[in-house]
Amino acid sequence: MNAPLLQMSGIDKSFGGTAALRSAELTIGRGEVHAVIGQNGAGKSTLIKILTGVYTRDGGTITFDGKPVHFHYPREAQAAGISTIYQELNLIPLRTVTENICLGYEPRKWGMIDWRLANKHARELLARFDIDIDVTRPLGEYNTAIQQLVAIARAVSLDAKLVIMDEPTSSLDDREIAILFGVIRELNKSGVSVLYVSHFLDELFQICDQVTVMRDGQTVAQREISDTNKLNLIADMLGRDPEEIRAAGMTDFSAAQAKTGDVLLEAKNVATGTRLRDFTMRVHSGEIVGLGGLLGSGRTEAARALFGVDDVTAGAVKIDGKQGAPANPRAAIGQGLSYLSEDRKAEGIIPHMSVRENVTLALLPRITKHGQVETKKERELVERFVKSLGIKASSIDQPIRELSGGNQQKVLLARWLATEPRILILDEPTRGVDVGAKLEIQQIIRGYVEQGIGVVLISSEFEELVEGADRIVVLQDGHSVSELRNPGVTENALVKAIAHHYADRDAA
Amino acid sequence: MLADSKTFDLRELLRSGGGTAQTRGVWIALILLIAFGLFRYDNFGSQYNVLSFLNFNSMFVLISIGMCFVIMTGGIDLSVGSVAAFTSVVAALLSSHGLIVAVPGGVLAGMAIGALNAFVILRMRVPPFITTLATMLAAKGGSLVLSGAETIGVDWTTNFTRLGMGSAFGTIPWTILIALAVVIVAWIILERTSLGRIVLAIGGGDEASKLMGLRTERAIVFVYVFSGLCAGLAGVILASAFGAGQPLEGVGWELTAIASVVVGGTLLTGGVGSIPATVAGALLLGLIFNILNFENGRGTISLSAYWQSVIRGNFLLIVIVLQAGLLTQRKARSQDG
C-alpha cells in the first residue's frame, strides 16, 4: 500500500483572533524521516500539538493510518500510535531503565510483574539500537542521549507508528547524535516514521528523507531532501528567491575597518560548550552592532557567553580593556554590561512583582542603605524611567503581569538602563511588541547610543537589524562568518549574507 | 534604620500588608469568626481568653512566619515541627543555666539545622522537600536520643520558666511579645529590605533572578536559617511554657504552618507572600479550636479532639476554595477590561 501514514490537510487554528495556522498541510509516508522546519512563529509546534491532541483544530482533516482521526487528549494520540519525544523528557529518572520502558505495560506472571522477563525485553529492545547498558540501574544515572534513546525504545515497544522528535539533538554532543541517528535508521527499517523538528539544517541532510517548510502558519513547500539544498530551504523559510540569493552569493563582504571611538567590547574566536564555536566581534562606544543569523546560529549563545552565563571554553574576551569574560552575570553587571534576555517570561519579568520592584531588582545594591531599600530614592528613579520611556501603567505599584507586552519590555529595558550600563546586549528587544511600542523602544535605544554606550542587538527581524544596526555580524552554525556595514545594507544583502556560506558549501 | 522616620513609613507598610485578593479571604474569615465568637460566648472577649489564646498560638505564629519565607522562595521546610521538639529538649537540658544559656542554646540549635538544610539544598542540589524531610527525621531521632525518649523536666529553680509562664507588667505574656517582635522584624525584612525583594524574586523567577546577578544563594541560606530560628524559638517557648522538653511534640506542626501560610494567600510556588496575612492564617486555625472548645464548654455539642481536627480541616478547605474563587473572579475581570 502506498497510502501515506499521516495526512493533515487544510488545518486551521487561531488563538484569540490571531491565526496560528492557515490551511496547513503535512503528509508523512510510511517508514520515512520527515523534517518540519520554519522560523519561530511559523506554526510548527502548533501543527504538532494539534496532531498530538494538545490543541483542538478549528478546521481541516487528519487521516492517520488510513482512518480519519480527531484526538482530544494526548493519550488518544498515543493509543493510536503517535509517540512524542519531548525536549524535556517525560520519563522518570529515579526508576530503572526497564521500568521506564515497560511502565503501565509490564509483563505479568500470576498477577505479579515478571521482572526477569521485563528486563530481558528491555535489553533486547535496546540491543536493536546497539545500546548495551544495565537496565536495572536508575535512568537518571545515564546521560541525556541514553535517556532520549530509552524514551524512543519505550515508544517503539508501545507499537508507535509515528515518533515525533522535537529538537532531539539540542542537548547532545556529536558522538551522541551519531547514536541517535543510528536509532532513527533502525526505526525506519522496521517501518516506523519519524517526524523530525530541528533548527540545525545540517542534520536534515544527514537523516531526513522529506522536508516540509512552514512560514506564517502555512505550508509553503514539501521537498525531497535529495532534490534540494540548504540554500533552497533557507529561501523557502524566509520567503525569498533562491536564484537571487545564489547570484549574490559571490559578493565580497570585506571586513569592516575599525571605527573611531573606544573599543568597549572585543570577542576573539570565542567558543562555549553550547553551540558557539568561533565568534569574533568588536563593539565601539556609540554604535549598535547587530547579530544576524538563523535560529540556532549561535546569536543567543554569544550573548550568554559575553554576559558570563555560559563559560567561555576558548578564545578571548576583552571588556573595557580588561581581559577575560565575566565569571557570572553579577560580575558582568559590575563591569558595565547589561543583558535583556530573549525569553521575557522565563528570564525577564518577575510576574507577581510591581513595575517598581521589577525595575529596581538588578539595582538593589545601589539603592540600599543598611540593608533597607531607600524607598524615596527608588520611587523617584522609577518615576523618572516610567516617564522617559513612556511606560503605560496605572501606577508604579501595578503588578507587571497586568501590563501589555510592549510595556513589560519597556520595564525590563528600564531595569537595565537604570544600572547605567556601558554595554547593553539586547536579545530580541521588540519581539511580541506592537508596532508603536517597537518604534519607541528603538528610539530609546538610539538615544542612549548617542550618549556613548555600545549596543549588541540580536534580532530575527532583518528589517530591525538593517535599519537599527551600524554593523551586522552574521553568524552561522556558531561561527561569525561575515560583517556588513551601514549605511548601504539592505534586507536582501543581509539575507544573502546569511545564506552566502551555505551557497558556497552547496556549490562545493 | 528603624528610627529614621524618613525611610520608615508605617502607612506604606500597612498598605503592603493586606488588601490584595489573595490575602483578603483570610482577613474576612478571621473577622467573621471573631464576631461570631464575641456574639455567642460571654467570655470570648475576656482578657483571660484573648491572652491565653495568643499565648498558646505564639508558637504556631513563629513557625508559620519562618515557613512563609521558605515558601516564598518556592521551597518548603518540613523539619520545623521536629526542630521545635529537638530545641525544646536542648533548652530543657540547658535550663539549669537559666534563660541566658537555654534560650540562645535552643535557638542556635534550630538555626544550625536550618543551615544544614540550606547547605544540602544548595551544594548537593537535593530538592527542599526531600532535604527537610530528612532533617525532620534526623531532628526527631536526635531529640529522642538526647532525651532518652522521655520528657525532660526543666529546672524550676532558675528563671527559665519565666519566659513561657511569666508576663510583662504582670499582664501580657512574654511569649506574645516575642512572637510580635519576630513578626515585626520579618515584616520589615520582607517589605523593606533588598533581601526581602530577592526572596520574592527567586520564587517569581529563579532564572531571571540569576541573570540579574542577584545573590540568590545568600537569600536561600537566610530563609532556611530563619525558619530554623523561628522553630528553635518555638521549641524554647514550648519547654518553658509547659515545664518540660518534649521530644514527642511537634508532630504535624509543619502542616499547620504550611496551612497558615497558604490560607494567608502565599502561593506554594513562591513569589508572593504576606507576613500579616500569614499571622492571620495561623490565628484563624487556632481560633477554630478555641471556638470549638467554647462550644464544648456550653454543652451544646461534645466533640473529641479528633472531630475538631476534621472540622478544622474542612474549614480550611472552604477558606482556600473561597480564595481561589476570589482570584479567578479578579482574573476574569482583568481580562475583560
Describe this structure in words.
The complex is a heterodimer of chains A (about 500) and B (about 325). With about 500 residues, chain A is of the alpha/beta class. In chain A, about 35% of the residues lie in helices and about 25% in strands. Chain A contains 18 helices and 24 strands. In chain A, strands 6-9-10-3-11-12 form a six-stranded mixed beta sheet. In chain A, a hairpin with a 6-residue loop joins strand 13 and strand 14 (about 280-285). Chain B has about 325 residues and is mainly α. Chain B has one domain (about 10-330): Orthogonal Bundle (ABC transporter involved in vitamin B12 uptake, BtuC), CATH 1.10.3470. In chain B, the strands form two sheets. Chain B has a two-stranded antiparallel ribbon. In chain B, a hairpin with a 3-residue loop joins strand 2 (about 165-170) and strand 3 (about 170-175). Chain B is globular. Classes of the chains: A alpha/beta (about 500), B mainly alpha (about 325). The interface of A and B includes residues 331 and 352 of A.
